[in-house]
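tokens incoming
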């Protein structure tokens, strides 16, 4: 970018030569160049797939020796096929920085990019995973990855992404939440560590069955104080960090309702 001081020198020089009118043209060109430089800068920020150390939850993992890269999409019933009315209304998508329109726009662009340019998406994802691993190593931490920050995509069924994740699985811990019970039962810990998210349409027997199988269930509670037990199952505090793979097996992961979820009446948020 050209500074005001540089323009001052240029103005003086052109004035001396009687060429003041040229300044207008130069300013116009500089404005256009600056505009495109800013646009490119903005697009580069928007098109980063992984957020690292920029959200309040995954950053808590740092103190435990983990560095998490998390991806945020714009949720919809297409990318969250098991979403319910309750979870859609109380989704974390609009919590924290999610209320800002540029953040929403970035999530939308990222989603469109992943869905419409799968090859380029997988390539960029791999580049960002490699740099996440390097960054974690430098900080003497273990790299973690969550691709479904605000989505519920079956990445194991995407051959391009699956091959990227498999290639780097030894240097990464991959974990996520899902509402897809069949996927969690079939895939849990094979490549991705899953915690199932409870919702208003889930039967209590299903919760018990999952927990017995060793798959924890995350439940959003309305009260400020989490209960010790729910459905007779021990509740642990899931807000201490987001490292779900570290949780004791056979537990309910209690999360306190945040943002819009506090007003939920669908049953997605539990009163206990
Ligand atoms: S499935 Fe998860 S990410 Fe999708 S709308 Fe529901 S809470 Fe949000």
């Amino acid at each position: 970018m050209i500074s005001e001081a540089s323009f001052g020198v240029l103005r003086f020089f052109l004035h001396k030569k009687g060429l003041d009118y040229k300044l207008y043209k130069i300013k116009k060109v500089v404005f256009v160049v600056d505009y495109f430089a800013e646009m490119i800068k903005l697009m580069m920020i928007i098109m980063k797939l992984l957020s690292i150390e920029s959200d309040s939850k995954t950053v808590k993992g740092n103190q435990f020796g983990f560095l998490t890269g998390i991806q945020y999409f714009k949720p919809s019933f297409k990318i969250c096929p098991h979403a319910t009315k309750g979870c859609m209304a109380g989704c974390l998508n609009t919590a924290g920085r999610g209320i800002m329109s540029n953040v929403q726009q970035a999530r939308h662009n990222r989603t469109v990019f992943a869905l419409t340019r799968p090859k380029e998406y997988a390539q960029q994802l791999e580049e960002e995973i490699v740099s996440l691993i390097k960054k974690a190593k430098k900080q003497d931490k273990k790299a973690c990855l969550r691709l479904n920050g605000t989505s519920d995509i079956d990445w194991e069924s995407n051959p391009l992404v699956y091959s990227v994740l498999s290639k780097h699985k030894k240097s990464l811990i991959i974990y996520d939440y899902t509402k897809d019970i069949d996927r969690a039962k079939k895939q849990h810990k094979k490549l991705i560590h899953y915690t199932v998210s409870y919702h208003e349409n889930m039967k209590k027997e299903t919760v018990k069955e999952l927990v017995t199988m060793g798959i924890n269930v995350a439940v959003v509670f309305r009260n400020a104080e989490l209960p010790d037990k729910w459905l007779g199952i021990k509740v642990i505090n899931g807000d201490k960090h987001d490292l779900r793979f570290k949780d004791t097996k056979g537990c309910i992961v209690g999360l306190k309702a945040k943002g819009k979820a506090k007003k939920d009446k669908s049953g997605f948020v539990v009163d206990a």
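note: The longest strand covers residues 172-178.
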